[in-house]
């Protein structure tokens, strides 16, 4: 099968970003886990950590056989019947069988890679993430063999009685306001409320007789002595 043509422009940029996420350390963990589960080497190339990488990882899993063997051990007694043919469509069929087995086993569909991600080397990092998801699910399902990654969290379902649910409806949240702070207690209906909550009869009598400057003043210049209709000079002098 001919390899996928090299992408250009935006396609190449997206592929570059996906490749940048690839971590050889995570690949090594996945390799060691698969080998310990199926009890055979992942590929014939045995080398140092520097020899790891997407191309070698793809070559080891491309035919889907190792993945199906992995599923058969973890999901026992369920068995995935894979094909050892080297025909491209048979190899892609093996990969697809593995993905279906993972979904049936309980791995979230959003955690699964697509067949082309592996077979055409489109996103090998997603392949690693899928195997990690399978490792977490295996621990949750009680698989007693080698582990990969942390154990998947279990659901914490809580059941409330009808009485408890109804009791919650009588609680007024603080977002709706509160009656624990300042109120209009003691005020007459229609009376003015002061900023400091001081009632009118408690205010100083002398203070009530003072006219604020905002209201004007009768202590400055006035029209005393002016005749009605007569012009007023700038200095207030009669002409």
Automatic annotation (TrEMBL):
Coiled coil: none
Alphabetic keyword roster: Actin-binding, Calmodulin-binding, Repeat
An example Gene Ontology CC term for this record: actin cytoskeleton
Domain Calponin-homology (CH): 24-138
Signal peptide: none
InterPro entries documented for this protein: Calponin-like, Calponin/LIMCH1, Calponin_repeat, CH_dom, CH_dom_sf, SM22_calponin
GO biological process, one term: actomyosin structure organization
Sequence similarity: Belongs to the calponin family.
The protein's name: Calponin
Source organism (scientific name): Helobdella robusta (Californian leech)
Lineage: Eukaryota, Metazoa, Spiralia, Lophotrochozoa, Annelida
Encoding gene (name): 20209931
């Amino acid at each position: 099968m001919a390899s996928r043509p090299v992408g250009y422009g935006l396609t190449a940029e997206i592929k570059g970003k996906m490749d940048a996420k690839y971590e050889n350390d995570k690949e090594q963990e996945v390799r060691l886990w698969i080998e310990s589960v199926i009890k055979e080497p992942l590929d014939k190339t045995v080398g140092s950590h520097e020899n790891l990488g997407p191309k070698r990882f793809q070559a080891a899993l491309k035919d889907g056989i190792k993945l199906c063997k992995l599923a058969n051990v973890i999901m026992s007694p369920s068995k995935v019947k894979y094909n050892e043919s080297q025909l491209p469509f048979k190899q892609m069929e093996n990969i697809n069988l593995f993905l279906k087995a993972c979904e049936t086993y309980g791995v979230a569909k959003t955690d699964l890679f697509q067949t082309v991600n592996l077979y055409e080397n489109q996103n090998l990092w997603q392949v690693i993430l899928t195997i990690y998801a399978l490792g977490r699910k295996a621990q949750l399902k009680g698989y007693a063999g080698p582990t990969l990654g942390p154990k998947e969290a279990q659901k914490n379902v809580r059941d409330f009685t009808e009485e408890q649910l109804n009791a919650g409806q009588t609680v007024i949240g603080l977002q709706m306001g509160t009656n624990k702070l300042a109120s209009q207690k003691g005020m007459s209906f229609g009376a003015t409320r002061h900023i400091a909550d001081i009632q009118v009869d408690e205010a100083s009598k002398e203070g009530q007789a003072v006219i604020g400057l905002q209201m004007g003043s009768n202590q400055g210049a006035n029209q005393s002595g002016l005749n009605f209709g007569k012009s007023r000079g700038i200095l207030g002098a009669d002409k």
